[in-house]
Design a protein that fits this description.
The structure is a homodimer of 559-residue chains. The first copy, chain A, has 559 residues and is an alpha+beta fold. The first copy, chain A, is 31% helix and 25% strand. Strand 7 of chain A pairs parallel with strand 3 of chain B, so a sheet runs across the interface.
Chain lengths: 559, 559
């Protein structure tokens, strides 16, 4: 088994022209290397070596080590588990070496001061919709549906806002996408195939102020209106649709290698998603109105497959092409195009969702029950999150900035209210020792003081304050200043001396501390570097630097 | 060099009948094993091995490892430094193995509930006077003199109290010592040698209510009064002395192997200690009054040698004997004896010092400047320590319990006052967020919230409360309860997830956290186990257990 792996590695290394990284399967080695004290080192499962030298770990168990004179060598399979560090053998130009990593996360040093009109922190690196906990992108709203705490799926405002912020940020950092007009009713006209019993006409639409196609098919088999698209590489299809009941638009995708065909049906229904065999259905609503549909077809296909429990495919964007678009039932369509991306359309879908779904108190209640910590009562459906409020504000402030539409600004301002309402009263505010305000990502009782969600809320406040114009009397500014005082005061308590705490549940619940895993720790560090650009208090930059050092194995000194 | 060490080890192993532990000199190996990335692995200083396999640590530097198939082996010299763990090769019955230790400290699980009449925590394991930072035991007061922050030496109340508490505890845990009466003026009479011009008589002393010897020598060379003692193994000599000016008592110690002679002179002077060649002088004061001298002669000898910069000798108690006692000048002496220990005499020396030196505010000011942390103003001579006050109270409560003398109880009660005086007003009280009281071991501004010193103060309060009788209205009880509330509230903030913080300077100063080294961490754990026996709040026992686990490499979970 081990030999086989080695041969595979050699074979792979030989195949590869450049550098090749090969992960070793340490976990299995770890199990083998660890045995109870006193058990014979010879073991039928273990490749016995005369070089084995017994190491007794804290008087508890033994590990097979090596020895050379004064030096004792410990197996990485043991070290990896004992200290939770990372390592792999890499090969460059045929020379192999072992690469030890203290953490697996990356810090993005901001190149310039954070600007609420620009990217949101490092969200240009986020890809919300590919996450497993995103069930699909809603056909009606164009925003993600979460399964994080509720397998049936629910609208999670934090996730929707992150989807919006990621696309806003990508729009600023990615190169302009290629756009291919399929049919704009004007200069670019597709060649539509119309079956005998179907009808197809072009006409001017007053509300769109553009030429559109009007179509109708019958219930007869073979009654259809369709056009060939045959586009590879780009997969974001958009069009305007006005459909009568029981009508649909279908996109046919083909696997270039395997002659596999997938049908994505966008149908007039309220059903979120449905999949059967090669057919995947998205409801786009039943109201008879123009709607612009913008769909990442690969995402739509993958989410359908996930429903069918099919494994995720690797790089489907290289293997598929958009073969054709089909219109069924009756209605009108226009502005059909395929792009590499449509980030702003996704961003504004999120912003519109936030405006439409905001409740009277300014909140976006989370409709799923959330189990936060063992000894704390669950958050019951309808709870609010300061992170949702903050992220929502960040989306809305940017939407106002880009569109100038006052509704976005009004919604952003309304979202502030719950930040001043205690958790017990349905809001998100907690107080540290009656003195320092904390905007709670999860407003449990007792509060948890989650760090990253609090800082994201602060960024929402900052965003709104700046987008409103430099009005030092604004509520957002006051809430930001109050929160920054709390942060700068309590930040040290999140320092473990070798990492950071995710929250302060050890203080509020008296339980074991909840250490932030490296990706959350990296989030903390990225957030602190960002804030250090806004506030000169040395606690921010010093903590960011120290915490970054922890990711390379540095530790605070002991006395 | 390496080979030489190995041969020495083999030789030692051969010499030894039982198990033999051999520490390897890892630090040097560590320096060799660590090199910059890209430097050739062959290096004239390094024993080159064809088995070397390059490990790149966090992309920063390289370490020479070993590899066997899928497994990579890392040198302990690297691991030791990187993670600060401990290891040694041990040999049992000729079989060597490597013993890995996560920490170097030990936890004492209390067998029964803490009782202020009993041992003080685990202090029966302390030996204050052998510490390098103890200059000597004062001949006048019988208490240690510290050089910790002031090389000339000063009376450090915390150290004096610890000296008392260690001896009180040893008195309870050690077997009854052997006592050999040299001359009690009654049944046991020494045979004194008196030179021609000297005088020697026996008489009854009214104040001592015992027979004593009266002696006088002249200035002539050879004028002397002395008796042979010739005792091995036991070295605590005590006697009553009443000396006129320029008189002295000298004890002659002899090295049985080397015919080396050491003269310990106890002279009527105010000088603390003086050493020249084989002569070591301790001033015992100039007042003409009876005083009982109780001296650990080996400690007195070693402290003299330390002044002469002679290296500490190993096990001098096996190599020396008390050869003789000499009286010079004129005065009276009685009750001469040699014991294995005189713990209660040392304990009461500390208790008497505390009563005598207590100031009007109830404090024992520390006469040395104390530099606590880089960014904090020094504590200026005359500062008070809550730990001194607490330890002092623990000594005085026990002295009252053992003696019934009210002066001890009064002094203990007076010592409470400063615990309610803020640091800025010369006291030791700090407040956490204006809400939780903390008795500061080092009352800096801003406060540091040192954990172990605070808990020791709590123990002093508990001791006094119990010794006073179960008076729930007592000030000590109230102060204890207030402090316990603070402790149980703030204890989680001292949890690093893999150890504990020594103090909260990262919070109050905004600097890097000050992690407790393992012996302080073990002190925390021992203290918490003790308190868990007094208070059923689960935070105490749960924290103690979790923190004990950290010493075996366990960690709090990450999310």
């Amino acid at each position: 088994m081990m030999l086989l792996r080695l041969n595979m590695r050699v074979a792979l290394a030989a195949l590869c022209a450049g550098a090749l990284l090969i992960m070793l399967y340490w976990s299995r080695c770890g199990d083998l290397a660890r045995r109870p004290i006193g058990s014979a080192l010879s073991n039928s499962l273990v490749e016995r070596s005369n070089d084995d030298f017994e190491c007794v770990i804290n008087g508890e168990y033994s590990v097979a080590c090596r020895r050379d004179h004064d030096e004792v060598y410990l197996p990485f399979s043991f070290i990896r588990k004992y200290f939770e560090v990372y390592g792999k053998i890499s090969s460059t130009d045929g020379v192999e070496k072992f690469e030890w990593s203290h953490s697996y996360s990356k810090i993005y040093h901001p190149k310039k001061k954070y600007d609420p009109r620009g990217t949101f922190t490092t969200f240009e690196n986020y890809n919300v919709e590919v996450r497993d906990r995103v069930k699909c992108i809603s056909g009606i709203d164009g925003v993600p549906v979460s399964t994080q705490w509720e397998p049936r799926g629910f609208f999670y405002p934090t996730q929707i806002a992150q989807f919006g912020l990621a696309h806003y940020s990508k729009n600023l950092t990615e190169p302009e996408p290629r756009v291919r007009i399929i049919d704009d009713g004007d200069k670019n006209l597709a060649s539509w195939t119309v079956s005998k019993d179907a009808t197809f006409t072009r006409e001017y639409d007053n509300s769109l102020k553009a030429n559109v196609v009007r179509f109708a098919t019958t219930d007869q088999v073979g009654s259809q209106v369709w056009c060939k698209v045959n586009i590879s590489q780009d997969f974001v299809l958009s069009l305007d649709l006005l459909l009568k009941p029981n009508s649909s638009m279908t996109v046919v995708l083909q696997n270039k290698d395997k002659k596999e065909t997938v049908y994505l049906h966008y149908v007039t229904s309220m059903q979120l998603i449905h999949a059967q065999d090669e057919h995947i259905y998205y409801g786009i609503g039943v109201e008879y109105k123009w709607r612009r549909l913008t769909r990442d077809l690969i995402i739509d296909m993958q989410k359908g497959w996930a429903l069918l429990d099919r494994p995720k495919r690797k790089s489907p964007r290289n293997k598929f092409r958009i073969w054709s678009v089909h219109l069924s039932g009756s209605g009108r369509a226009g502005g059909l195009r395929v792009s590499g991306s449509e980030h702003m359309a996704h961003f504004f879908a999120a912003a519109r969702w936030l405006v439409a779904q905001q409740r009277a108190r300014g909140g976006w209640p989370v409709p799923a029950r959330r189990r936060v910590a063992p000894s704390v009562p669950d958050l019951r459906p309808g709870w609010h999150s300061a992170m949702s409020q903050g992220h929502g504000i960040s989306v809305l402030a940017r939407a106002y900035h880009r569109s100038g539409e006052a509704a976005y600004l009004r919604a952003a301002r309304r979202a502030l209210a719950l930040l001043d309402v205690p958790g017990a009263a349905g809001g998100v505010k907690a107080m540290w020792m009656d003195r320092y305000v904390w905007y709670e990502e999860y407003p449990t009782k007792p509060p948890l003081f989650v760090l990253n969600g609090f800082i994201y809320t602060l960024l929402g406040l900052y965003d709104l304050h700046v987008i409103e114009g430099d009005n030092s009397a604004s509520l957002a500014k006051k809430m930001f200043d109050d929160g920054m005082l709390s942060l700068k005061t309590l930040l040290p308590i999140f320092d473990t001396g070798s990492g950071s705490f995710y929250d302060l549940r050890h203080f509020t619940l008296g339980v074991s501390p909840n250490i932030a895993r490296w990706d959350y720790h990296a989030t903390h560090v990225n957030q602190l570097y960002l804030l250090a650009g806004l506030d000169p208090d040395p606690i921010l930059i010093n903590t960011a630097k120290r915490w970054e050092g922890y990711m390379q194995g540095k530790r605070a000194a002991h006395n």
